[in-house]
Amino acid sequence: MERATEHAEYGQRPGRPETDGREATGRTGTDDGTALELLVHGVGGTTPERMLDDPRTVRVTGDDTAAVFRRIDDADAESRPADHREGPVPEAYVWCNLTSGNGSRALWLLLLPFMVVNLAHWMRPSTHRGRRTVRLHGLLVRLTGLTLTVLLVAAACEVALDLTAWQCAGNRGCAEAHTWLGFLSPDLSHHGWWSSPGRRLALAALVPTALTVLLWYLSHRTWSEYESQRPMDRAEVRPTEDDAEPVALGRPGFWYGRRLVARLRAAHTAAGFLTVAAAVGSSAAREDRRPGGPAVLDLLGWLFTAVLVVLAGAVVWVVCRRGRSERRLDRELDRHLVRGLPTASIAVLVLAMGYAGWSRPGWSSAGRLPGDLTFGGITLVQGLLVLALGVVARVLHRSRPDPRTALYGLGGPAVAMLACALGGVMSAGVAQRVADWLGGTDDALPGPPVLLTWQAAVIPPLLVVVVILLGWLARRTWVLRREETAAVEEEYGLAEAARRRASGPDGGAEPRYTARTLRIARARAMAALTDRAPRVVGIISTVTLLLGAGALAGAFATGQTPARAARDSYAFVAGAAQTAQALGSWLIGVGFLLFVTWGRRAYKDASARRTIGILWDVGTFWPRAAHPFAPPCYAERAVPDLTWRMATWTQTTGGRLVISGHSQGSVLAAAAAWQLTPSVRRRVALLTYGSPLERLYGRWFPAHFGPESLASLHREVDCWRNLYRLTDPIGGPVRLPGRCGSEVDAEPFKDPLAYGRTADHPLPAPILGHSDYQADPAFAAERRRLLARIGPEVPGPRDC
């Protein structure tokens, strides 16, 4: 009776007499009472020695990338159960090498637009609507990702083919300034073999071709190293008849997207090659269509265009045809498609190079290649896709509205808009910088397409909006700090002293808070800014969409750069346009350098990873479902690791297991628990601290971490306790409805532990925020309560 009461108090129901746990795991022996605590660290990374608080550790299973460690004294704990009846055997799962390493990994930040658009796929609102609307949401995101691939390769074509081979090599002054282009210049090479415009373009096409090959190689290699770990087959853990998975993250094929990634990789690789082929072949075809040109070449140009359109349609069809298969472990590959589509696109590219290299007397390079139409079309299609995605997201959200969902279900479209903006800024920035380096945009060379110049010019107005938002956040932080000071005084028993100060000689004056109080209140106010991230993202995305539409309209309406278009206007307008154009170009270059610098620091510096790394680790947590060239998903290695360890250990020993996760480790722990069959999951207890499960993942990814999914996890695990602080900018409460919330969420930990100097804290206690939860005595107390309430009996389902 006492045991049943303990279970009821801690979010469990008493175990069923007819089920003792051995049948649930397929074990015929007796339970020896051994318990295991599997520790999972967060994004900052750590060492097994620190996690286990012992300098002597041994690797139990795993490799140099991710592994499970134990203390040396606990290496054979299962053979000595009597020595571990007082507490569980601690194990540490160390996965920091999946997301950190040498500074060269910072180059993955160049793939940031692909990662961001992949995030938009997973931000689908939770819905009651049918599969067609859900599939339409995924289709629109995949098409947006395809436009980003075409945009990146088109930017490389703009730099290599248009600015370098067409404009600079065809201009005597530019070719003389850059002697390495001399053999391409018809004026300097005395009409050498490579001086023909078509052959120049064919040679320059090797640069974007190499970029496409590099993207394919990185996607294939990183999948082989990170994401090829096969999840556990449900038959290997002997599931019972009632094992059903309503939660998406519990589906057998969720963490094994091999088939989809291979299909998307083939389609995007083919799209890259076809983009290069179009850039090379279309210029020659346009020359052949002029009056008096050879009829044979004109016919070849039309045939080339027809083949290009057919293959482009095949690429779009592959992207549209099929999404993720999560309900089963899909081990098959569409080998004919995976190999045939890139091979056909390479053949078309080779033919395009040969076709362009055909001798055409009298053909000279003048002006710029028709990049305005290309980039304008890509920008227009991206805008329409984002708007359509917004309509679909709102329809999905309205079927099951949740006030906690970020941006009322529009988080995916907002993030997709940011991905398109990042791609546009990077394309415009590279083109502007190369144009300035080669010869400028208003002097010797025509420069990049007008649209790219307009896109660079709208960056300063966007930064003005960002500065205004930062000012609003600063004011909001100041207001919150004032509100929190009274709460801090009350919490640490200083309210009476504050009232005495207020009623002193300066009776009605504002209370004079101490510096210690203000620091604590400021830490709480800064932590609360995380909850305002949706509003900031929504405003920036909306302004970006409007500015992008304005840049597109300005480029097509004037056909000139902003500075030239405003040259005949008022002096103030002309000066502002010229300043915005020049400043935007330089800001892109400076921003790119800062981007790579911060990325290198985040990979090499643990303190930087706690701030910058959380955003990167959120992005790379999700599988590559919308873009195959996104950075690799570490969870497709980490989640199967944890699932295999928990399932096999409980099946082998019949013992109890606690999985304890901090920060991002709590998300991995929850994802791994969902992957277990319900029969095994009932033997697992969950301890999370500093967890972003609801505060970040629940709000931004409601279809997978929404209230119903978290409530389902609470019902099916043995028990769950969540710990957090008000000064933590990442972790927060789980917020389950009703009494379930109080069962899971503990009272917020006091931070700092003491306001002033005490006997227990003779030196000032630090404000810990997101780190060192174990330093709080309340952590040990909560952990003891959790361990005291798990047992070999299997709890029944809860009502909440």
Automatic annotation (TrEMBL):
Domain of life from the UniProt record: Bacteria
Is the Signal keyword given for this protein?
no
Q: Where is this region: Disordered?
A: 1-33
Please note every region of biased composition (Basic and acidic residues).
Answer: 1-25
User: Where are its TM segments located?
Assistant: 136-156, 201-218, 260-280, 300-320, 341-358, 378-396, 408-431, 451-473, 536-558, 570-596
Keyword vocabulary terms for this entry: Membrane, Transmembrane, Transmembrane helix
Tell me the protein's name: Integral membrane protein
Q: Which organism is it from?
A: Streptomyces heilongjiangensis
